[in-house]
Design goal:
The protein has 358 residues and is of the alpha+beta class. The protein has 5 helices and 22 strands. It has a 6-stranded mixed sheet, with no helix packed on it. Strands 1, 2, 3, 5 and 7 form a 5-stranded mixed sheet that branches. It has a 5-stranded mixed sheet with strand order 12-22-19-14-17, with no helix packed on it. A hairpin with a 6-residue loop joins strand 10 (233-240) and strand 11 (247-248). Helix 1 (2-19) packs across helix 2. The longest helix has 23 residues, at 59-81. It is globular, with a radius of gyration of 26 Å. The structure holds copper (II) ion (CU). The site of copper (II) ion (CU) has 5 residues, from loops.
């Protein structure tokens, strides 16, 4: 970023100075002159002697400052807006209907309008009007029935990503089932075999359909939870990079949701990448302890502050919130998180509150 800023700076100075009719001066000389016009005045070589004599030498400095102020104002505006209100919230917990011991869920796939950031509303394909689709949270060993209702203009199907299901429940058109045509429905039913942070998504024309929002979290609580994995806050973070841009839980900064906890609490984060690119998620101020990959416990927990989340992967981490404050939390592929207009896309914050401070 600093290189780029310096380049922009040098370019704008060059443009300005050309207008001031000193184009003969080389770019490096201009840059260093601009950096310290006053101090170099006494020792400048003869060839440059006339350059500083052009009228209004203070003007370029003022212009640069104004440009810096304008850029800073855009950055500040975004941060002041965070967390910005938008219509719609994804990943809402879906309560099942109980039918003779079976947890029954209905997922209706249809086209909706989705506000990704304040004022930016896009066409989305969503389950139950949400991006990500509603969160399904069950227990290892539960009997689950999922009815898919297709109100889209294309065929579709649901794949339960990470669950080790019988073959005929795998949800891949022309491998394990026919495609579910527009206006039709399909019923999946299975006993949940393995615990962990999993996902469900379309497995038909998926680069388009998942990119447009046909995805959701499928969390399976273990029969016996490990005491070491106990957490005060359990937060699912679905990453995507399809038609809606770079998003966390269907929203781009400043409409992303901050994760809030109290100092001393433990936060469990469940990263899931439904996109087509890797996203190294970086937390400021505290480290993450990785406890599971794709729902499977790690042989031993390990620590990091930047965790690469590849497409299809789920990573579970614990954060011991020792350090109070508002901490930036973002994808570290910087063009996924920031431009000269300010932060956008895959940026949120971990807010660690001090006791007694709201
Ligand atoms: Cu990224």
């Amino acid at each position: 970023v600093s290189d780029r800023t310096a380049l922009t700076e040098a370019t704008s100075r060059r443009t300005f100075l050309r207008k001031g009719a000193v184009a003969a001066v080389s770019l490096p000389a201009v840059a260093s002159l601009a950096a310290c016009t006053e101090t170099r005045a006494a020792s400048k070589p003869d060839s440059l002697a006339k350059a500083p004599a052009t009228p209004a030498p203070a003007a370029p400095v003022l212009t640069a400052r104004q440009k810096a102020d304008a850029m800073d104002a855009m950055h500040e505006k975004g941060l002041k807006a965070f967390p910005a209100k938008t219509a719609g919230k994804g990943n809402q917990l879906l309560a099942p209907r109980l039918e003779q011991g079976v947890k029954v869920y209905e997922l209706t796939a249809e086209e909706i309008q989705w506000e990704v950031e304040p004022g930016r509303t896009v066409k989305a394909w969503a389950y139950n009007g949400q991006v990500p689709g509603p969160q399904i949270r069950v227990r290892e060993g539960d009997r689950v029935r999922v009815k898919l209702i297709n109100k889209l203009s294309q065929s579709t199907a649901i794949h339960f990503h990470g669950l080790e299901l019988p073959n005929d429940q795998d949800g891949v058109p022309f491998i394990t089932q026919p495609p579910v045509k527009p206006g039709e429905s399909w019923i999946y039913e299975f006993t949940v075999p393995n615990a962990g942070s999993h996902m469900y998504h379309s497995h038909h024309n998926a680069a388009i359909q998942v990119g447009a929002g046909l995805l959701g979290a499928f969390i399976v609580e273990p029969k016996r939870a490990r005491p070491a994995h106990r957490a005060d806050v359990d937060y699912v973070m679905v990453l995507n990079d399809g038609a809606h841009g770079y998003t966390l839980n269907g929203k781009g900064f400043p409409a992303t949701e901050p994760i809030v906890c109290n100092q001393g609490q433990t936060v469990r984060l469940r990263f899931m990448n439904e996109g087509m690119m890797i996203h190294p998620m970086h937390l400021h101020g505290m480290h993450m302890t990785v406890i599971a990959k794709d729902g499977w416990d790690q042989p031993a927990p390990w620590k990091c502050d930047t965790l690469n989340i590849a497409p299809g992967e789920r990573w579970d981490v614990l954060v011991k919130a020792t350090n109070p404050g508002t901490w930036a939390f973002h994808c570290h592929i910087l063009p996924h998180a920031e431009s000269e207009h300010g932060m956008f896309g895959m940026v949120t914050a971990l807010v660690v509150q001090k006791p007694g401070v709201a």
